[in-house]
Amino acid sequence: MTVFFAGPDVFELTGVGDGANFTVSANGAATGAWEPGTYFVSVRMQNGGDVFEIEHGACQVVADTARANIGHDARTHAAKVLDAIEAVIESRATKDQLSYSIGGRSLQRTPIADLIKLRTAYRAEVNRQKSKNKSRLGRVLKARFN
Question: Which of 4, 5, 25 is nearest to 16 (CA)?
Answer without folding.
Answer: 25
